[in-house]
Design brief:
The chain is mostly beta strands. The protein has 12 helices and 59 strands.
Length: 999
């Protein structure tokens, strides 16, 4: 049924285009002329419209000339992107026409891409921030999210680590969910992308070349995002890629960047000498005999200085009617963890022809990337911290030669052969060198958009957008038979690993809407009305393969060859923009979504929004006040939904087929068994209601400008896992819509131009955000004994969690015991405060101590230019975020060094601070204030202008990334996405130089 609806819409639109295209009327006269700019240069592709004869018009040719049919009393309108519109009455004009158009720089700077269209910034009623390529962060940038880190108030971007292409945690005005997704919707050139990524891709956005991006618009409040309905609770990021422009001369741009990345901090661990002292002090001869004579630094052994390069070439320009841009890119980055590498080959083609005298605009985009990754085994990071430093990396023992010569703890098999010791740590260098984990990800995103001005009603446009997004992943993991990593003491062919994986994803989209804009001068009003339909379908094909040893022996064969999860979204949407006297602005939107992820009773959701803005600057009492450049008040309210992160079929009664490890013998045949799964037939959308009050201001010709926003987000029908009575379902726990969560916050943005002279130009941008998130409800009924939902699993012990979701507190609050200290300030091992004074230390004595999210986060960027030399930098700060030091809690005690299983490992120097003999995982001693200030980058750039006889423009630059971090936290990095510091891939300091050429 869904496909038939799509075909009917497509047929209707094409029929409409075919019927109305040839409707121009023959007129009695032709008018000729030429269009030029203020410098006397001819303008190519200017749209010439006869205002008195709808559907009649022309485009200027390569010489700026035009011919158009018109009556002597008609009016002609000349419009061109970036120039002020010119209107000419033929009754008083001199023929042939000589038209001069002046640039409209302010208009170009103020056009903002919104959901299903564009708008001028002055007409916006919602909270939207635009960052263009001029303000993007500089340096070796692998993913688009890095371009705007610290640049937008209310947007927190936390690095996922220092691996090439690593994804970031992006939060817009805090998270609105506990169990569904908290990631924003990303729309690129009108194509909403699926949340998540295919296996083998470093991140969801790693297949997008940042060098092809022109701007990123962040939609934050519901009045801006509700047009996207059920996917907009976490905000929307709209990415617009670079395109050719009408009238643009041929331009070839080439850029290259070379970088060196270096590790800058390691976990503070013991030296070999210190470990030998601890072994000797224990008095246990087995440990004394076990230590070696080395002082090996295993962390320095696994890390390296890494080389990277980013190269891009683009060709752009325009014929009289066809703007175009073609780019290719090659990105290659080695990780500082040995063997880690990412390569990306990308291509981007954009064609934006204007046909039928400019009435038909076509935007065609084609983006193709291939990303090749070799993933280093991150387990080597934790293993290197804990590896015995008294022994060497490589051994001269001939018994270890068959294993590559790596030193490791050995045992013996039943027949006396040397084998890796069971459960003992592996050599971290062998973990990196012996394991080849590779993946190749191909992605194609293409769409074609038709925007047609219908000739029978000026101002009425039909817009059709057809898109296809395809991604495939092919992965392999190979470990040779001799490696200690997958060693088994059986016949030849049983060791090693040779696994493969494959997955394909498709995302198909059809969007169609009609838009009508008209000015009614009699009532001083402007109406802009839009209504549309959308169909989007996501299909994943997972190929299931058996495991295989390096010798080719298969095991764990899958029952099914493929899985085909799928979901579909149908939508109807509309928007009304109304402006009264140009200064009282009203916006209303509504979207209704139907998702296949829910039963028919809950399938459809309605998501409305309303907003009002008052352009105070245009009032008579401020209009002539030169000191005030801009003043606008905004009010908004809306409801958005959430379906990403919700399983496709969780509303259906379904069965899971057991794996081959869980078969049952019936007669003489082993059979796979079916197991019923818990389900909730009434599962539905999470819904977030957002209120926003904002003010935009500017003073002294916008030398000082900015905005302040106050917001409240309230999410109901929050998905939470609760206990249910035995026999009520096929499990004693069920994920269902039961919770509520609230976000309150304030955002401040300031932009200042302190100096602006002929030679000097200095800009400063600052933003600050306060956000508080509180869980309001988790259960059907109030239960004072209900502690909450345990989360935050840590390494060490069995099923230990250090975080909890609790009503009245922030999500993921740390839930730990209060450590007792002696008179010297040293923690007393195993002694915790009896907070409820019942004489027993149990879970009721735990308390909530902070959470991973900051109370306040800020960004500061500044750029100083003197003639052609520019120095710029960007800093970020986070205040009130906490981190659990899982590295020290696991390795900062004697039992971690003198392992009870009978071998020696290393520990952190925190052992000297505590003196703990055994692990104390749940002590609040390990929960640390991780507030920080970071300088993300500093760049020096020089523009040589035209060289080589004015044929080539030359630009050179140098950048340092991750310049410094100031924090009380002593771990590798205070910025940890989930708040639990363990096996974190360090973010390196990167030095790079760049060269740019424009022909």
């Amino acid at each position: 049924m869904n496909h038939s609806i799509s075909k009917r819409w497509l047929g209707l639109v094409w029929a409409m285009l075919l019927l109305v295209a040839p409707s121009a009327t023959a007129l009695a006269q032709t008018v000729n002329g030429v269009v030029k700019d203020t410098k006397g240069e001819t303008l190519i592709g200017v749209t010439v419209q006869n205002l008195d004869q709808p559907g009649v018009g022309a485009l200027t040719n390569l010489d700026g000339a035009f011919t158009v049919k018109a009556n002597p009393t008609d009016r002609l309108q000349f419009s061109y992107v970036g120039y002020k519109t010119v209107e000419v009455a033929l009754s008083t004009a001199t023929l042939p026409l000589q038209i001069t158009m002046t640039e409209d720089v302010e208009m170009l700077e103020q056009v903002v891409v919104i959901g299903y269209g564009t708008a001028q910034k002055k007409d916006l009623t919602g909270s939207i921030t635009t960052i263009t390529d001029n303000n993007f962060k500089k340096g070796l940038i692998s993913t688009p999210d890095q371009l705007i880190s610290g640049k937008v108030a209310g947007v927190q971007i936390v690095s996922g680590g220092g691996s090439p292409g690593a994804g970031s945690k992006i939060r817009i005005r805090g998270g609105a969910s506990l169990n569904a997704s908290n990631d924003p919707l990303v729309v690129i050139d009108g194509v909403p992308l699926e949340g998540g990524t295919v296996p083998g891709a470093p991140s969801a956005l790693s297949s997008i070349n940042p060098n092809d991006i022109e701007s990123m618009n962040v939609l934050k409040d519901a009045s801006a995002t509700a047009i996207y309905g059920s996917r907009a609770s976490n905000g929307v990021i709209i990415i617009t890629t670079k395109k050719g422009k009408l009238g643009q001369a041929l331009k070839v741009q080439a850029s290259t960047r070379f970088s060196v990345s270096t590790p800058i901090k390691f976990v503070d661990v013991l030296t070999g000498d210190q470990v030998r002292e601890i072994a000797k002090a224990s008095g246990e001869q087995r440990f004394i005999d076990m230590v070696g004579a080395e002082n090996t630094d295993w962390q320095k052994a696994i890390y390296q200085n890494a080389i990277g390069t980013d190269n891009n070439v683009s060709i752009s320009g325009s014929t009289s009617w066809l703007p175009y841009r073609l780019s290719v890119g090659y990105y290659n980055e080695n990780g500082i963890l040995r063997t880690d590498n990412m390569q990306r080959m990308s291509g981007d083609l954009s064609l934006t022809p204007r046909l039928l005298n400019g009435d038909l605009a076509i935007d065609f985009n084609l983006k193709g990337t291939q990303t090749r990754n070799r993933y280093a085994d991150r387990g080597a990071i934790g293993t290197a911290v804990g590896m015995d430093p008294t022994h060497p990396i490589m051994s001269e023992d001939p018994l270890l030669a068959p294993f590559g010569g790596y030193w490791f703890l050995t045992g013996t098999s039943k027949d006396g052969q040397i084998i890796p010791k069971s459960l003992a740590p592996k050599n971290p260098l062998a973990m990196l060198n012996d394991k080849e984990d590779r993946a190749t990800v191909n992605r194609l995103i293409t769409n074609i958009k038709f925007d047609y001005q219908l000739p029978f009603l000026r101002g009425l446009r039909a817009n059709l957008n057809l898109a296809y997004d395809y991604a495939s992943s092919n992965g392999s993991v190979y470990i040779p038979t001799h490696s200690m990593l997958e060693y088994t003491n059986q016949e030849i062919g049983k060791g090693g690993l040779d696994n493969i994986s494959k997955q394909e994803k498709t995302n198909k989209l059809l969007d169609f809407y009609l838009n009508y804009r008209t000015d009614v001068e009699s009532i001083k009003s402007t109406f802009d009305v839009m209504a549309g339909y959308s169909y989007q379908d996501w299909l994943t094909k997972v190929y299931n393969y058996p495991n295989k040893t390096a010798g080719g022996i298969e095991y764990n064969k899958p029952v099914f060859d493929t899985d085909l999860p799928r979901n579909t979204l149908l939508s109807f949407y509309g928007r009304l923009n109304y402006a009264l006297m140009g200064r009282y602005l009203f916006t209303a939107t509504v979207r209704t979504d139907g998702s296949s992820r829910f039963a028919k009773e809950n399938r459809w959701g309605v998501f409305p929004s309303f907003a009002f803005a008052w352009r105070v600057k245009d009032e008579s009492f401020l209009k002539d006040v030169d000191a005030v450049s801009e003043l606008k008040l905004r009010l908004g309210y809306g409801v958005t939904g959430q379906q990403d992160g919700i399983a496709n079929y969780s509303y259906l009664a379904s069965y899971a087929l057991s794996g081959n490890q869980s078969q049952m013998l019936l007669g003489d045949e082993w059979l796979n068994m079916y197991k019923p799964l818990a389900y909730d037939a009434n599962i539905k959308w999470e819904q977030t209601a957002t209120s926003n009050i904002g003010v935009d201001f500017g003073f002294v010709n916008n030398r000082l400008s900015g905005s302040v926003d106050v917001y409240k987000k309230y999410t109901k029908d929050l998905l939470n896992t609760i206990d249910i009575p035995a026999g009520a379902n096929f499990s004693n726990r069920l994920l269902t819509n039961i919770g509520e969560i609230e976000n309150n916050g304030v955002e401040v943005t300031l932009n200042v131009v302190p100096v602006e002279t002929e030679d000097w130009y200095w800009t400063v941008g600052f933003n600050a955000t306060y956000n508080k998130t509180v869980i309001k409800k988790l259960n059907l009924t109030y239960d004072p004994t209900y502690l909450g939902v345990a989360t935050g699993r840590i390494d060490g012990g069995t099923d230990n969690n250090v975080q909890i979701h609790t009503e009245g507190y922030a999500p993921n609050s740390f839930f730990v015991f209060k450590q007792v200290y002696d008179k010297d300030g040293k923690p007393v091992e195993g002694l915790y405060a009896d907070l409820n004074e019942d004489g027993v230390i149990d879970n009721n004595d735990k308390y909530r101590l902070g959470n991973p999210e900051p109370k306040v986060f800020m960004g500061l960027s500044t750029s100083v230019s003197y003639k052609n030399l520019t120095l710029s930098t960007a800093l970020r700060s986070s205040i009130g975020n906490y981190v659990y030091d899982n590295v020290s809690s696991t390795r900062g005690q004697e039992a971690a060094i003198l392992n009870t299983l009978g071998w020696i490992q290393n520990g952190t120097t925190d052992y000297y601070n505590t003196g703990f003999k055994a692990p104390r995982y749940l002590s609040d001693y390990y929960v640390k204030d991780a507030s920080f200030v970071k300088m993300d980058n500093i760049t020096l750039n020089y523009d040589f202008g035209k060289v080589l006889g004015d044929k080539v423009a030359l630009n050179v630059g140098a950048t340092v990334q991750n310049v410094f971090t100031i924090s009380k936290y002593k771990g590798i990095d205070p910025e940890i996405g989930n708040g639990i510091d363990f096996q974190f891939y360090p973010v390196p300091r990167t030095y790079s130089v760049s060269l740019g050429l424009t022909f």
